[in-house]
Known about the structure:
- By secondary structure, the protein is α+β, with helices and mostly antiparallel strands.
- The protein contains eight helices and 17 strands.
- It has one domain (34-74, 97-355).
- It has helices at 20-28, 34-51, 56-59, 114-119, 122-149, 202-213, 230-234, 253-256, and strands spanning 62-65, 69-74, 95-100, 104-113, 154-156, 159-163, 194-197, 221-226, 239-242, 258-259, 269-273, 276-283, 290-294, 306-310, 319-320, 330-343, 351-355.
Amino acid sequence: MAVLGFGDMKDQVLHPLWDLAEMKKLELRDGATFDQMLQESQDVANAVSGEFLRLPHYSGLFAIQDTPELEYGTYTGGVIQEMTEYSVPDPYRGKTTGHMIPVKMYSRSLGWTMLSLENRRRNQLEADLQVVVDDIRNQFQQLLLSRFFKMEVEAVGATAGASVPFADGGVTDSTWIPRPSPDGTTFLSTHDHYLRTTPLAIAAINTAVDHLWEHGHKAPYVLCGSDADSATYSAFTEWLGPTWPGIAYQDTAAGTDRSTLPGIEEFRGAITTDKGLVYVWLTPRVPTNIFGLYKPYGSGSALNPLRLRIDPARGFGWNVLPGRYVNDPISLAVLRAEHAFGIGEDRTNAVLTLIAASGDYITPTIS
């Protein structure tokens, strides 16, 4: 029936039999489909995989290859002879050795019932995708840093010890001898880049720098250490904190100890040493009283310390598996990656240092 008068704001009320919570659910539901979520899962996987190729911390640590083997020279030495009229010099040839990079398969799934997916709110769907990003990032960082600090060998296939560490004093491969440096320093198979010293001071940093320098790796270097040791590093006289945009630093002791180096904002700071600059990357993943030093040669460079082996058929990063692996009414999106880290062809491009009063280097647990 008609009601006499104007319609005004007092009419904007819910009827007694209308359930507000039920109406709110309909208003907020996204109506996402399984195919849509597959595409969004692939998009976020691509994004986080690409992140590791751009960040200076990670991109300067590894290169990518799709084959299992690495072959490189081992120093044997030749002789340069004075030429005479009736003789020819003795021939010398190079000698090589090598190791392998493992590969492992990993997976991560997202699952919904059909009805749940249709009624899920957009914030809930984005939370599902965000946790995938977090898990992929967490696993990649753990794998990378674990191999970087690890001094033990790994099996590849049926061959024990095929994946080797950096220069370890000839324990894993006594036939490998580092090549002489451009400055003429020669080495033995017993040359070791796994050190133990105390305390955590500039002398320990300089020692690690010396080990890289003598192999021809020139500054700048990157130090990867523990966030728990931040106060120790920043207390060094040689410490340079980063400058931040929009701040006018005065010409004081605090002001002059600031660095405007390119990319410094990605690091905690920098340390000046006798042989060049060391960028400092601190992370809570690394335990206290240990650090690793390396020379980054740029994203994807074969000279970087580590090598990431991937499957040639699947490529780099994570990909959504095709098809529905569980029939409706349950939908399961499965992402897969196949990769593993190993040491690159230059086994001299890292120095790992344990800060302890006694004993030998011990592989840390990366969180």
